[in-house]
Prior knowledge:
Elements: E1 5-10, H1 17-26, E2 29-33, E3 37-41, H2 44-51, E4 59-62, H3 65-75, E5 90-91, H4 93-103, H5 117-127, E6 136-141, H6 147-154, E7 159-169, H7 173-180, E8 186-191, H8 194-206, E9 215-219, H9 221-229, E10 236-238, H10 243-251, H11 253-269
Helix pairs in contact: 2-3, 3-4, 5-6, 8-9, 10-11
Amino acid sequence: MSRQRTVIIFKSESESTDVYAAELQRHSFHPIFVPTLSFGFKNLEKLHAKLQHPDDYEGIIFTSPRCVEAVVKALDKEELSGGWKMLRNYAVGEVTHNMAHDHLHQLFTHGKQTGNARALGQFIIESFDGDKEAPFLLPCSNLAQDTLSVMLREEGFRVDACEVYETKCSPDLSEKMEAALKADNIEYLAFFSPSGVNCAYEYFKSKIIPMDKYRLVAIGPSTRRALESKGLKVYCTAERPTVEHLIKVLINPQESRENLMKESQHQLHE
């Protein structure tokens, strides 16, 4: 029987971690999770005040599970005003969609099939049939890229962005990395966010370990661009942040590269 190939996954602990571990092991990969980031919440009183007035908004947009968590913390055991359920609410990806449903009194969000902010922005623009008079409430992090806000504003939408959490490198990163790098047969490093790339890159640089001795896997286009901006070669890119998409590109990296070639050719001709 062939040895399991080790994948170090730079991903924060979440409800999906067990699912990732079980599925990867089922496909003969040995996953090691290294949380690269830590989060601190802020402006929750300001967010709480906004959440009391759903009538002032078109809906709420969640770009990550952390944004849902910020709303839960801001409400502090209060129930989310029922008015939000009548609005057009959106979430990037299934994990965020499920978290909003489970923790915000079954709040339904559209867009769970999208895997990143750009795809969600495109989905909102194409499917929206309202009058765009009221803004969307957009809880976000201090590192949020403006992709979604810019896309929506260019199409005449209004966005009320509220910075509700700060993203920093995890204080345990060095210790967890040292333990992870002792594993046998490490073949892949898989990154889930540009900020995760930045924190891991600083660690490898400080220890003088070349990252490109491993196969680098990006989850989503913005993470791929973050790796490439460091002069690193990306082995393959998963289209969406799900374990199925990750396994698919680990098993068949060629398909990922072909999709990237088509995407870059498409952008050249736009």
